[in-house]
């Protein structure tokens, strides 16, 4: 098995991250919802006050191979706040290219996010998964995550831009 490195994303990774975001959206059958651009990823993740943080998984070339590292996965996260438990981290996306799944790369990304969360004093690590993605749910449970829909009956909601405009009276 090739050597894998999990590292913090750099601004120059935004093209690869966007490509992987699109692959994830296609896998989730939601590609039409991807509106983000490489420029927005750069501005929002690498400015003075980043809106998100990102890890990338790289396959490192064997010694003597001419090509450089190849980005095969990512985990995009940000910090949130719980009025009950304080600091939390939310993993918005985790994705590993299909041909690299089953090698522990996703688990390594999740473990690194957990490490970052603990270093920042977070009490919880949250994420969401589509109800049909049993493989991901099984992985999260195997790593110790609790399914809040099963355990507590929580449902996730969102307001889209038009609904926000109406709410804000704009």
Q: Could you give the count of β-strands?
A: 5
Structural class: alpha+beta
Low-confidence stretches: none
> What form results from the Cα inertia axes?
globular
Task: Assign a percent range to the helix content.
Answer: 25-40%
Total number of helices: 6
What does it look like?
The protein has 170 residues and is α+β, with helices and mostly antiparallel strands. Helix content is 35%, strand content 25%. It contains six helices and five strands. It has helices spanning 14-27, 38-45, 105-119, 134-142, 148-152, 161-168; strands spanning 3-8, 53-60, 70-82, 86-96, 124-127. A five-stranded mixed beta sheet has the order 1-2-3-4-5, with helices on both faces. The longest helix is centred in the middle third of the chain and has 15 residues, at 105-119. It is globular. The mean pLDDT is 95.
What does the secondary structure layout of this molecule look like, with pairings?
Layout: E1 3-8, H1 14-27, H2 38-45, E2 53-60, E3 70-82, E4 86-96, H3 105-119, E5 124-127, H4 134-142, H5 148-152, H6 161-168
Parallel strand pairs: 4-5
Antiparallel strand pairs: 1-2, 2-3, 3-4
Helix pairs in contact: 1-2
